[in-house]
Amino acid sequence: MEDIVAMLTVIDWIADDIHYNSRGESFYGLHLMADKIRDFGDAADELKERYWLGFLDTTPPSGKYFAQKAISLYGRYEGLGYLDAAKKAATDLVSMVKSTSSEKDLPNGVTAILDEISSHALLCSFFASASKSKAE
Fold first, then answer.
1. Where are the alpha helices (DSSP H) in the chain?
2. Do the beta carbons of residue 70 and residue 98 sit within 8 Å?
3. Alpha carbons 49 and 27: distance in angstroms, whole number
4. What value does the CA radius of gyration of the chain take, rounded to a whole number of Å?
5. Contact 109, 50 (CB under 8 A)
6. Which residues are CB-neighbours of 79 under 8 A, at least 6 positions away?
7. What domains, with CATH codes, occur in the chain?
8. Local confidence band at 133 (pLDDT 50, 70, 90 cut-offs)
């Protein structure tokens, strides 16, 4: 679950990279796509509340812990183009959600959040693929 929360931060950072490094003819479309990619809403906050506070009855790890974890995960995408990084990170997030969902006996509220994250991550992967095709 910790990796999922951290990966949401990583995807937000990658979306920032796309958002602020797009220029030329494809600027506007990539700029809007970056906004869509980062739009996971309050998923990280909801996971912390429902999983750690509700289900485990404990406090979630600190923000510093999640930031350090996100920095570590971000390294996986260095050297990739922004759109490739977005696609790979979204695909990795879907795998993390599937793995976590199958390993644990989670309450419906947590499972619903994970399903929403997975659905949005699949959409992000599609956006990145489609945008890359148009940029080439």
1. 2-21, 27-37, 43-47, 63-74, 82-103, 108-135
2. no
3. 37
4. 15
5. yes
6. none
7. 2-135 (1.20.1260.10)
8. low
